[in-house]
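Onboarding guide, step 5: your first structure request.
Type a short instruction followed by the sequence, for example:

Predict the 3D structure of this protein.
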Amino acid sequence: MKKTKTILVAMAMALAFTSCKGIVASDLAEGSSSSRAAAVATSSKRVVGYFCEWGIYGAHDNYYATSIPANKLTHINYAFVGLDPSSQAVQIFDPWATTDIVYPGDKWDTEYKGNLGQLRKLKEEYPHLKVLISVGGWTKSNGFHAAAANATTRARAAENLKNFVVQYGLDGVDIDWEYPGVNRPKDPNDEYDLGAPGGIEDKENFTLFLKAIREALDAQGRKDGKKYELTAAIGVGYDKIAVTNPGDYCKYLDALNLMTYDMHGAFESNTGHQAPLYANMNCGIYSDDVREKYNIDWAVKKFISEGVPASKIVVGLPFYSRGWNNVSGGLDFDGDGIGDGMFGTGGSTLSGKWGVGGQSPYFAVKALENTPGWVKYRDEVSKACWLYNRGARELYTYDDQLTIKTKCDYINELGLGGAMYWELDGDDWKNGYDLVNIVHESILNGVDFGTDINPGDNGGNNPGNNNPGTNPGNDNPGTNPGTNPGNDNPGTNPGTNPGTEVPPSSKATGLPGTPSLEQTSWNGEASFGLRMNMWWGNNGTVAELYENGVKIASVSFEDNSPNAQSYTFNISGKANGTYAYQVKLINSFGTAVSGTVTYTVTKGSASSEPVNPQPEPEPEPQPGDQGGDQPGNNQPPAGGNTWAVMGTYTAGQVVSYNGANYSCLVTHVAYSETWNPADTPALWTRL
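The system replies with structure tokens like these:
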């Protein structure tokens, strides 16, 4: 593990929370429930979660429909069925899972059984919810090319899909053709992969195919007096966009679910972010096209430039990781002169919980956050993070709570249509859904559409001994998501403070639920927030915040188990340095401890003198907020330091350029004059 320099200073701290009572709603949401409900009622924003056929098996921890947080979604896409290449009939690949399981409460002659029957019941309980059937996916897109080939096959496929929707009481169709215009043979190493034929004719036929389905659904909708939806999961690679006509086919879709993930993975010998928000042009290992275009921002703006309305664009969020073994090199992100794995080289055989290539659910990699050897890094330019074990030479790229929140803010700022995530069972669902909650609060303003489901609950509907315990056909790139590698592991694990007075627990029946701790802004600022969330379970009555092993703040809560608890510690006036934080949630039964969050200040005072506390609360910093000029950061180092081509600059370094001073945001080499501070705001901020 790499060592980081820690500066111990007194801090100015403001404690902000969303209720004067101990049990609080998440501070991501503001306003009354009625005002939030009104906001969502007038919004077309959607939050789409994929529920997979194979999720009920042991390889995916037996995730049943009864565990879906339907009160925090607008849409569920059930994945996957296929289309027979010859007859265009709808194919169910695992009938036992999809239509045949007799759950408790069902009878052998129940009309709707299996996963689809459970989803129908979920729709009855949550009338706002839309359930779509997703067709295709990475391993089951073999029938699309033939189905789209001519008017006859298009009409036949559209009719069959429409009939399937009506038969199972669904709300529409989601087409997941991976990918139009691309001819991909079967993967000989994957028994479930059927390949995906394709050709240049798909460019026009894909549009006509969607048009035929749209017309069939609309005709049925007029008969039934309802609106049937048509959406599509869309590849965002620049080469895949080029062989379709987004400006044409978008007219037939209610939403485009952009698959803005799998941009890099172990299918390459170089390491990279699998779902970066922005490009980091400082990466020299990829081509200019890949560096510039393999990021969410480029993809979103490309679709808008092609004529797709922003309101139809739904950004995909991965609830899983990709990764490499045998990693070496990479850029030096923390300025210690050693490469940190990212943008280096790596091997393809890292075993993940869900598959080779480091494919693991968020909750599995999150569990690594406090494991010795693993260190978490952030790319402040790309707004991405990764987990790296230098000794084991293993690296996971993933989304965590901060990157998900940053992407949700981006969605709102650009007026996009919402967020989609692959897949529901990748989140930490047994402990209350870390990522689902952030998307819900950010995109839907925290509006609760119904009664909360007990996290981790199989609803008593586990079919028990019928469960074969294996995954019969796990999808792969583009459709098989998974994980959030966790927090950094520096600093000291805080011990129990014998001086803490713990109020009694009135409703809790055991130890508090494990809290999570996340920073609310990217590294750099001298003022920042640390948000504690305990999403579900036994409540704590005291929360204590520790910095570098020393308790620096505490707050009392009322016990309102099993509801969520949330609290934001606002910190200001920090000196430059790296700080390790943990939170302890305590009740009369004992203590639960969060993972460690490491925050690096580069825009604070260079002095280690104590900063006087400020008694009044300060507004919580927002992700990406630069927070204004910081004291002590407005002058270059003694003797001056003029920016020059081919200079090596480290995060926090101050230089002068054309009479102005700039602070470096990320360690890099200035390869040409175009990298000057005035023209590269991703690398420099003017003081």
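Each response can be followed by summary notes, for example: The first helix runs from residue 33 to 41.
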